[in-house]
């Protein structure tokens, strides 16, 4: 297999590769630090990585990949029970952590290597095969204990090279972000992506509009974020012309991990003249689709399939939807070199996840426009509402609700209804808690924009929507709200 990071050997050694706050590693220094760690890891089994947003995490994962050792990123905010499950399931031989990091007892029992981000060593030859495990990333566990998705080296290379094609991503790009490093978005795309291209990444540590503006004004060309981050940017723009100018300078603004509300798309475009592009992926599949850098950044869509990715929409009986009419809803199924190989220790779950012809069942519901653009309408389990004989995606109703000036946040779910099968429930965080918009007003607002059968029948008000670390709304938690 060709190296995952050719720039470590062939790139300019004095060029910046990683910057976390005031700490920077050049390509030469990263090659030395990761090479030194790889030498210590050679011949070990898989390793856990205490994935704090620090330079050491990037060095740890790079060193493990150079050694051909699978890395298991651990969320430092995980609860004890979840950590115990992940460690028991993945059985790492040791844990890599930044010096001085305090580890909980469940992790502290493992042998530990403190990562020296400024060590010096020789760069090893990468001998691992395409199909060898690179990362084991645990899913969010919304339907049971988290499952470890085994991502092979070929999946990392395939998805990053496909994104390079779609985004015209080169070694001249400088990426800024503040994403956590225990997920695909922040780690694979946000750290390994720039390293594979031979470019640079600047990690903010903590997201702030001021930090984003500073880095974009200082030469960063790309911004990766989740919808919560872009929402905060949109909120800050009216009073901050400097921020608008900084965002306008970016070559590419990319949002992922959840759908970016159309309202925030439009606010950012109006203030900056730049449109955010969206892409679609999962832990198990890495990236499947994206709006291309040379394509139309159409709000509410995630673009077209990436090179090498086969994508189809299927009915509940498995029949493929071949009429791309922008209305017919089907489940997304994908096939390609970007896919994981298995759920660790879960052959039953692995078998159930794939069709007989090798397509992965994503559980995401979407429609496809006549020109091939994909628009996701929600998760099959939580966002597809069957009401009055219609299949309704929660996402488009949420976007409509967010266009109401009295709505700050919105989520839509379905609940049993004796007449309709399911009725549409809107969960609203009002812009003014003292004067929330009424249920009838919101229903009429949606009906005017979409169709009468898509209006919410019930409206419930909250102070905030429950979200996970990546900003996704945890809809299963709404039932307990």
Describe the structure.
With 481 residues, the chain is of the alpha/beta class. Among the domains are: 184 residues, Rossmann fold (3-Layer(aba) Sandwich); 97 residues, GMP Synthetase, Chain A, domain 3, CATH 3.30.300. It is 30% helix and 26% strand. The protein contains 14 helices and 25 strands. A 9-stranded mixed sheet has the order 2-1-10-9-11-12-13-14-15, with helices on both faces. A hairpin with a 2-residue loop joins β1 and β2. α2 crosses α3, α6 crosses α7 and α9 crosses α11. The longest helix is centred in the first third of the chain and has 15 residues. It is globular and about 65 Å long. Belongs to the ATP-dependent AMP-binding enzyme family. It comes from Streptomyces nogalater. This is Acyl-CoA synthetase.
């Amino acid at each position: 297999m060709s190296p995952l990071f050719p720039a470590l050997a062939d790139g300019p050694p004095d060029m910046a590769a990683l910057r976390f706050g005031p700490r920077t590693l050049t390509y030469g220094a990263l090659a030395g630090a990761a090479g030194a760690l790889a030498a210590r890891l050679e011949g070990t089994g898989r390793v856990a990585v205490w994935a704090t947003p620090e330079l050491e995490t990037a060095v740890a994962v790079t060193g493990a990949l150079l050694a051909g050792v699978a890395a298991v990123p651990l969320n430092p905010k995980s609860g004890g029970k979840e950590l115990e499950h992940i460690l028991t399931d993945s059985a790492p031989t040791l844990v890599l952590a930044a010096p001085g990091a305090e580890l909980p007892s469940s992790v502290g029992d493992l042998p530990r290597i403190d990562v020296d981000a400024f060590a010096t060593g020789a760069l090893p030859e990468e001998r691992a095969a395409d199909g060898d495990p690179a990362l084991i990333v645990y899913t969010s566990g919304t339907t049971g204990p988290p499952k470890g998705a085994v991502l092979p080296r070929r999946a990392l290379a395939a998805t990053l090279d496909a994104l390079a094609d779609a985004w015209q991503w080169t070694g001249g790009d400088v990426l800024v972000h503040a994403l956590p490093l225990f997920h695909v978005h922040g780690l694979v795309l946000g750290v390994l992506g720039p390293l594979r291209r031979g470019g640079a990444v600047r990690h903010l540590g903590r997201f702030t509009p001021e930090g984003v503006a500073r880095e974009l004004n200082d030469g960063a060309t790309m911004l990766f974020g989740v919808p919560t981050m872009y929402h905060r940017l949109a909120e800050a723009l009216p009073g901050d012309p400097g921020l608008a100018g900084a965002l306008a300078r970016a070559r590419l603004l990319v949002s992922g991990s959840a759908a970016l509300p159309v309202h925030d798309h439009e606010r950012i475009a109006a203030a900056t003249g730049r449109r955010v592009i969206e892409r679609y992926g999962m832990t198990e599949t890495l990236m499947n689709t994206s709006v291309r850098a040379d394509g139309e950044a159409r709000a509410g869509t995630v673009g077209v399939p990436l090179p090498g990715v086969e994508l189809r929409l299927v009915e509940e009986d498995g029949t493929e939807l071949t009429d791309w009419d922008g209305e017919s809803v089907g489940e997304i199924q994908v096939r390609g070199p970007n896919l994981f190989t298995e759920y660790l220790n879960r052959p039953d779950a692995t078998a159930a996840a794939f069709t007989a012809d090798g397509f992965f069942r994503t559980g995401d519901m979407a429609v496809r426009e006549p020109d091939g653009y994909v628009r996701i309408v929600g998760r099959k389990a939580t966002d597809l509402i069957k009401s009055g004989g219609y299949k309704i995606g929660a996402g488009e109703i949420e976007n409509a609700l967010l266009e109401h000036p009295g709505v700050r946040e919105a989520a839509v779910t379905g609940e049993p209804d004796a007449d309709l099968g399911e009725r549409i429930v809107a969960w609203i965080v009002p812009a003014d808690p003292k004067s929330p918009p009424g249920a009838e007003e919101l229903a009429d607002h949606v009906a005017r924009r979409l169709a009468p059968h898509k209006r919410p029948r019930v409206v419930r008000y909250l102070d905030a929507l429950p979200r996970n670390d990546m900003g996704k709304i945890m809809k299963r938690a709404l039932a307990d709200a």
